[in-house]
Design goal:
α2 crosses α3 (75-91). The chain has a 6-stranded parallel beta sheet. β1, α1 (20-24) and β2 (29-32) form a beta-alpha-beta unit. The protein has helices spanning 20-24, 47-59, 75-91, 119-129, 134-138, 140-158, 185-188, 215-224, and strands spanning 2-7, 29-32, 67-73, 97-101, 172-177, 199-204. It is an alpha/beta fold. Helices cover 37% and strands 15% of the residues. The chain is globular and about 45 Å long. The protein starts with a strand and ends with a helix.
Length: 227
């Protein structure tokens, strides 16, 4: 069997990939993953723990005999890399390719983090990102429910920087926005050093948050590289 596992960005959860199965088609099975097990905690706030959670969900449906691909958007790119590393090191599972989107390479530290902001300032910051529906900010009950989990995601990625440099043995394909002021070209160059295979960089139009407008094109690019 062939599987693509999608790892979501900070705060988004598996619903970020709600439309992917319909676009991908029937030739390859798409599975959503989550690194937070609960809405109400306790929350995963260490990258190694997040990788373990995602790896566990992958191993529940796929094994060494299957073709496994991982895709991670934004923070999910780092979680996907760490998951692929864990699968290779601990289970001798060699994924076929790692697809990453709109994120810096694992060796680049996060600058100007927001996880330590007070709740009001944090909400204002993520509101400006445009990644959450407006309803989320209007309904205070939703904010109260999801905010601790979202903050845990941001703490996890802002406290992470890779110093191991473990190399995968599969291609890494990166999708990056042409006018992304947050993820600059020099901060993505390091992805090539995380594989003994090839690194391919693909540019999409727009800024950091144009991913959502370009999902169909990204999916089509992934499908072409898994056939």
């Amino acid at each position: 069997m062939r599987y693509i596992f999608g790892v979501p960005s900070a705060g988004a959860g598996p619903t970020e990939y709600e439309d992917w199965p319909d676009v991908i088609g029937k030739d390859i099975i798409f599975k959503k993953t989550a690194y937070q097990k609960s809405l109400t905690g306790p929350y995963v706030d260490e990258m190694s723990q997040a990788a373990e959670v995602v790896a566990e969900s992958i191993l529940s449906v796929a094994g060494r005999e299957d073709d496994i691909y991982l895709f991670g958007h934004c923070m999910g790119a780092t979680v996907a890399y760490e998951t692929a590393s864990l699968l290779l090191r601990e289970f001798d599972i060699h994924i076929k390719a790692l697809f990453v989107s709109a994120f810096i390479s694992p060796d680049v530290p996060i600058e100007d983090g927001i996880s330590d902001l007070d709740d009001d300032a944090f909400i204002e910051e993520i509101h400006g990102h445009g990644t959450f529906p407006e309803e989320f900010f209007i309904k205070k009950s939703l904010l109260k429910l999801f905010l601790p989990r979202i903050k845990a995601d941001y703490r996890m990625i802002e406290g992470y920087v890779d110093k191991d440099g473990f190399k995968l043995d599969c291609p890494i394909i990166g999708f990056f926005a042409e006018d992304d002021e947050e993820v600059r070209p020099e901060t993505t160059e390091g992805w090539k050093d995380y594989t003994t295979a090839s690194f391919e960089r693909i540019y999409i139009p727009g800024n950091h948050y144009s991913y959502y407008k370009n999902q169909k094109n990204i999916i089509e690019g992934i499908v072409r590289r898994t056939s």
